[in-house]
Amino acid sequence: MSTPVKPKRLPNHVYISEGSVDHYTQSTLKGHYSLLPAEIFWRDRQQSLYDAGYVLRPRYWPNWRPSWLGTNLRPTFCEDSIVLMDHQVMDARRRDNNELVAIKKFRKDTQEFNISQYLNSLRGHPENRSVPVLRVFDDPYDPKLALMVMPYLRPCNDPPFLSVGEAIDFVNQTLEGLAFMHRHNIAHRDIAVENIMMDAKSMYPEGHHPVRLHYTPDAIYEVTPLPRTGRTIHYYYIDFGLACHFPAGASHFVVGDVGRDTEVPELSSTVPYDAFKVDIYALGNLYAKEFEEKYNNMQFLVPLIVRMKQRQPSARPTADELLAQWRNIRDSLNKSSFKWRLAPRSEAAIERVINGTVAVAWEGINHLKKYVT
């Protein structure tokens, strides 16, 4: 006769005292953890999405009852207490393989919707770095809306970059992607670190929570990612809400004091400017802020950044010219430097030596593991 397996006890921080149970129960019954108005949109579509092959988190199921009621569990560590952060996008899992995806609602009459689908029609090109579209279907209630299914992505700089080679890969992919868009007469017009995301599944083999990114899928335990190095990471441009698709041969000049990067010098709501040159400046500014200004050993980016951030738009090269320059820079680098740890400018000299030594040691251990395992 087998011995019954006792349920695993959760960490102590997940539990509340008996005296707190009533407090949280009353708070819950008063609506403190109820669905937000924007979440109700997705709750109402739960069954339609399920029928289409996508499962929402229990919080969005009909007749949801908070899982912590009647227990001594702290609501914060119950997965169904976690609210949606971006109300335009819902996470879901595919019924057939449990893969995490993102579902975004779009108005069908928007440029964003049309550009996203156009770029996806060019998916076979290796330099296409626009977010893939897996499926599009009509909203079940609003004929003006469509629901677009995409891979689940996380911020491109979370977790932080660790090595020079990781930064080089990011520059490779994002410059290729920009050149590809411009060749197809598309200007993004809102390039910023928030609008470049990554498919990081290989860094999180056990997954992570889609909203509470630094926790396991059950939102209880902190999760430690694997490094980018040695894994395939895909970076994608997202959010084409300000993008323009120009007819062949048409002017690229637009107006609009818009976009996340407010440092682009020519932005104006009245004076026309070249949308392609804005993309160039914004991406160069991103490289400067994320790499060259943060780390001591990214100076090789300076010649590229200087050309991209020329104050006079006409002095900035095209994306294809920059891609050619970048490839020359990259190919001139010693390949052994790709493994070097990114050294923060804020780091003291002794700290830099210690951290560099530790990084080399870990690299040796990881290299040895390849032969032992």
From TrEMBL:
GO terms for cellular component: nucleus. The keyword Kinase applies. Keywords: Kinase, Transferase. The keyword Signal does not apply. SUPFAM superfamilies: Protein kinase-like (PK-like). Residues 10-373 form the Protein kinase domain. InterPro entries: Kinase-like_dom_sf (IPR011009), Prot_kinase_dom (IPR000719), Tyr_kinase_cat_dom (IPR020635). GO terms for molecular function: ATP binding; protein serine/threonine kinase activity; protein tyrosine kinase activity. One of its GO terms (biological process) is mitotic DNA damage checkpoint signaling. Pfam families: Pkinase (PF00069). SMART domains: TyrKc (SM00219). This is Kinase-like protein. It comes from Trametes coccinea (strain BRFM310) (Pycnoporus coccineus).
